[in-house]
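User: Here's a chain of 136 residues. Predict its fold as C-alpha cells.
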Amino acid sequence: MRAVLLFFSFVFLLGCDTSSNFSEDVLGFKLPDGVSLLKNSKEFYNNPTGDGQQVAIFSFHSDDSLLLVNNCIKYNYLPLPINKGKLPDGAIYQWISTSDSLGYYKLDIDSFDNTSYSLAVVNLAKKRVIVYRVFY
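Assistant: Prediction complete.
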C-alpha cells in the first residue's frame, strides 16, 4: 500500500511541474498574461540518475516589453550577449544566437555541480523569452 501511495505521489509531483511553474522558478518573476507558449519540452537522458534538460519558449507582444525589461532590471539580469565562456555547454545555442544583443539574461550555475544550470533569456529583438534548465 505504501509503495502505491509513493508512486502516485511521485506521478502527481511530476505533473505539477508545468511550464509556468518551471519558468517562474527560473525567471524569478511571473510572465505577463499576454505571453504565448511556443515550446515546452522536458527530456531525460537514458540513465537512472534523472539527468536531462527542460526548455520553455514564449513569445510576447511589444506591449509587454517594458514590464519584462523592468523585471529584468529589478532582478539583476545582465545585458545580452551571453559570454560563451560563462556557459558550461553550448546547448542553448540551438534557441539563441551569439549575435543576439538586444535583451537580458540570468544564469544560475549549481555551486555543487557546475554542469547543472538554469538560464533565462529575454530577447527583445525576437520578442522571445527562453527558459532553460540542465540537470545532471
